[in-house]
Specification:
The protein is built from ten helices and 15 strands. The chain is α/β, with parallel strands linked by helices. It has two domains: about 15-150 and about 310-350, Medium-chain alcohol dehydrogenases, catalytic domain (Quinone Oxidoreductase, Chain A, domain 1), CATH 3.90.180.10; about 155-285, Rossmann fold (3-Layer(aba) Sandwich).
Amino acid sequence: MISLPVAPVHHTIEKRLKAITYPKYGPPDVLQLKEVEKPVPKDDEVLIRVRAVEATKSDCEMRSFKFAVKWFWLPLRIAFGVRKPRRQNLGGYFSGEVEMLGKDVTEFSTGDQVFGTAGLKLGAYGEYVALPASYTIVAKPSNMSFQDAAAVPLGGLNALHFMRLARIQARDKVLINGAGGSIGAHGVQIAKSMGAEVTAVDSTIKEDLLRRMGADHFIDYTKENFATMGRTYDVIFDMVAGSPYAASIRALNPNGRYLTANPRLSVMLRSVFTSRFSEKTAKFAFAQEAREELLALRQMIEDGKIGSIVDIVYPMEQAADAHNRVETEQRLGAVVIAIDDRVDDSHADCTNLNGRFL
């Protein structure tokens, strides 16, 4: 028998990937699906195969370069690009699988299912993202899909930060203004898990959602102004950039705490005087989005204290629709983009034994 030479098998490594990009600032239709170079992880980085990413209000603001809070417009424009964006791939909050490790990385293994934040490096609007292993990235909750998990880091990390800052005690009366957004919705669930009596403020269409998340009371801001209703609270967590500051402070009980996640410069200055010269406190400290906080959130999810807040999942090709959904404020929860081309609807019918929305 004559042995014929066998040609060597060459395993090709995919060097291109699909990503949602924006070559210029503008409306949602500037988003484009195109092929880009696949990132190569540095020695201290992990390469993550992105499975899902949340489409956030921040993404929309950076895409359009229109911000609710105006004071940081100029430094951000300089940092991100004056005439056009320097980094053309958005996406900061994601879930996925670890595909490759830099040579110095020891805390992850290939195949790990993870979720977390890309920080200001962004890049999760693509099939792959390379990030430092030191970033806030941890194992995905075992009882959540990739798409549900992608909706957690932004809202969960910021909500947990502010609820801890508020020093919530059992039976505290907590009001969350702008409760229907990603941060506010997580805030409702976290405050309830701490034993608070929660009042949620948002538009009419979000009442059912927020009550299913555990809100004890609901105020429709299109019909009533919580600050002038004569009710007072131990904690007011304010997600609305244009809220009247003085009226909100008056709605606090003695020793009440006011926390704002979208402070105007004037509010930042006034909060210092409120805290120093009155019995009430006002705080605007920004979330650090620490790994310990994400681990705490994962535990709360696996313990059934926090559930999914996903509204709609869009495929990559419909990224512009996802941004439109976020900007119209008609969403009932978080808007997620499926990066792996599979739209999983399993979150839609999931409730726990208490009947709360998951």
